[in-house]
Write a structure and sequence with these properties.
Length: about 350
């Protein structure tokens, strides 16, 4: 009797004697075997993720932001749209100012056929609910700017592109110290107002970074005053700094900084209300997108500069990563963080042009 062996040592009879004739089992099974092998090849080559392998032109994604009127998020949207256009994908831009609208927006995206979304959540504590909603709708998810929290801990299993917050704070602190030293202000007459919002981890890390760098460079910790803003807008930071100025009328020169441009701008307005000028106060913001009108003013204000961060990169690269993940099955890195560079009245236009962000 003849046999055929496969690579695992399985031995199959080619022919079996039956009543002095030969019945060919292999001949009978051959069409079935070919069909099974063909099916296995198709199944074995299929990528996970549903849409993986699809053309990018068939991809629809969402880009959800908490404050669409802020220049930072407008820049993210601008470069997200550019990336989607380059890929031939469809981008749906949605505002999600609160939890209810966020969860409703995800359902609306799913109903529109979206296969995933990028989100800067209005509340990082919504992370578990957002991730569950995405999973229920078989949608891929990337967070941008602010990382999700679950029980106070970062949800490291969710893909994220954010800012190296503490390092950006260090750049701000360095800039404040450098400019103060250039002006030769009497050290005993200088204090720093740091506008804080510790409810948000990113904000807390930025302001902690500012304080760390100032003290590292020799600024007296006893002259660094943290003042909390109740709301994350100019009125909120104005009130915080105004209250601080009332407590310290003895200070002749002020440094002021916070988690973003808005925090510093509110502080600058409060300082101006007390008679401080660009000669007696130095303000450094963070973002570099919300302060352009201030830097363009004919008469300089205490707002000296900002740490320009890469909103363009955040918008563009998260969009490209999500589209490639959906269409090619290429999973992005779990975490990626960007930095920042100082811009001032003297060079902000050129640096924005260098980053492709000048409008």
């Amino acid at each position: 009797m003849s046999v055929i062996s496969d690579k695992d040592g399985l031995r199959l009879p080619l022919e079996i004697p039956m009543n002095n004739s030969k019945f060919s089992v292999f001949g009978l099974l051959k069409p079935l075997l070919i069909s099974v092998i063909g099916l296995a090849a198709v199944v074995g080559c299929k990528k996970e993720g549903g849409a993986a392998g699809a053309n990018a032109s068939s991809v629809t994604i969402g880009y959800l932001v908490k404050q669409p009127d802020e220049p930072w998020f407008q820049t993210e949207w601008q470069f997200a749209q550019k990336a989607a256009d380059e890929k031939g994908a469809k981008l749906i831009k949605l505002a999600v100012p609160d939890g209810e609208k966020t969860l409703a927006a995800i359902d609306n995206l799913a109903a529109s056929g979206a296969q995933g979304f990028v989100i800067c959540t209005p509340d990082v504590r919504l992370g578990p609910a957002i991730a569950a909603k995405a999973a229920a709708n078989n949608m891929k998810l990337i967070t941008v700017d602010d990382q999700f929290l679950s029980d106070g801990k970062v949800m490291a299993d969710v893909h994220h592109l954010g800012v190296a917050a503490r390092e950006v704070g260090h750049v701000s602190g360095q800039a404040l110290s450098d400019e103060m030293k250039k002006r030769n202000w009497p050290a005993d007459q200088v204090a720093a107002a740091i506008v804080t919002f510790k409810e948000l981890d990113t904000a807390r890390e930025r302001t902690e970074g500012i304080v760390e760098k100032l003290t590292e460079l020799g600024f007296p910790k006893t002259k660094i005053y943290e003042t909390a803003q109740k709301t994350t807008d100019i009125p909120g930071s104005f009130d915080a700094v105004n209250f601080l100025l009332t407590q310290h009328p003895e200070v002749k020169y002020w440094l002021v900084a916070g988690m973003n441009d808005t925090a510093t701008l509110g502080g600058v307005r409060a300082l101006e209300g007390r008679g401080f000028t660009d000669k007696t106060a130095i303000g450094i913001g963070i973002n570099g997108t919300d302060c352009l009108d201030e830097l363009k003013k004919t008469n300089p204000t205490p707002f000296f500069g900002s740490i320009l961060m890469e909103a363009n990169v955040h918008g563009h690269d998260t969009t490209v990563a999500l589209i490639d993940w959906i269409s090619k099955g290429t999973e992005p890195a779990k975490e990626r963080f960007t930095g920042g560079v100082l811009i001032t009245r003297a060079d902000f236009e050129q640096k924005l042009k260098d980053h492709g962000m000048w409008r």
